[in-house]
Amino acid sequence: MEESKDFKSGNGGYLWKVKVISEAHLDHWINDYFGGLEISNQQDGSSVISGKLADMPAVYGLILRLRDAGIVLISLEAERVNNQEYEPRG
Which one is predicted more confidently, 11 or 79? Predict the structure, then answer.
């Protein structure tokens, strides 16, 4: 999945902030599979995939990639936010 760098084109200045929590730690190779999204393994054994996506088709693409990789989810959140108000969490 390729992250769009121009969030102003065709989406009215909005983007989608996503946060996915998986049941298990994810291997390092998965970073390339979810290009542009941050992946961090948590102490409780889960992993968090987070970041921003350009539009709803990109969100659906993420969901399909999660399914295709066989990743078991605890939760998935997608929130439409104004591009100027988005502040990534560290």
Answer: 79
